[in-house]
């Protein structure tokens, strides 16, 4: 059910009520700008409206931020990204060959929760196609990170010790990457 809320300052926004088996009212705002409230069966529409009104400042701030978000900066075409990642892998390969690691199969996919992925047993590295939105140094960091998993499968201290050998700036790169929001 979609409701419209008009505010005293003349602006308005709509929100959707989604009935669920929940105890409390919860507010959700998606990156698309969709605002929705999960509500239990016992919550009346009036009660829900009051709840939304109590969150108006927060909702407006959020919607403003979404509307004013800068378009994502694309650093590479998909072809360039594939080429770049292959290039970084070729660079790392001799170092790893000495440690008994074969050149992996490299795959590309659109992923929502990770930049890359390593399956050491199968010898497969998968990279997120959305890395085209990430500066080159960070792409290299992701490549180094995933290769390091061939030696250490987890994120232990040993992992970061190994990663430092091929990517000493990993901490800065990781911080930079965390600031990139992929929609
Ligand atoms: Zn990892």
Would you kindly provide a written description of the structure presented here, covering whatever features stand out?
41% of the residues lie in helices and 20% in strands. It is α/β, with parallel strands linked by helices and 183 residues long. The protein folds into two domains: 2-68, no CATH class; 78-178, Metalloproteases ("zincins"), catalytic domain (Zincin-like). Strands 1-2-4-3 form a four-stranded mixed sheet, covered by helices on one side. Strands 5-7-6 form a three-stranded mixed sheet, with helices on one face. The site of zinc ion has 3 residues, from loops.
Ligand catalogue: zinc ion
Q: What average pLDDT do the residues reach?
A: 92
Briefly note the CATH topology name of the largest domain: Zincin-like
Class by SSE composition = alpha/beta
Taking the alpha carbons of the first and last residues, their distance comes to 26 Å
**Tally of strands:** 7
What is the number of independent domains? 2
* Outline: elongated
The number of distinct helices, counting runs of at least 4 residues, comes to 6
Strand order of the largest sheet: 1-2-4-3
Beta-strand fraction estimate: 15-25%
CATH homologous superfamily designation of the largest domain: Metalloproteases ("zincins"), catalytic domain
Biggest β-sheet, characterized? Answer: 4 strands, mixed
Order of helices and strands: EEEEHHHEEEHHH
Helix content: 40-55%
Please give the CATH architecture of the largest domain. 2-Layer Sandwich
Radius of gyration: 23 Å
Question: Regarding CATH, which class of the largest domain?
Answer: Alpha Beta
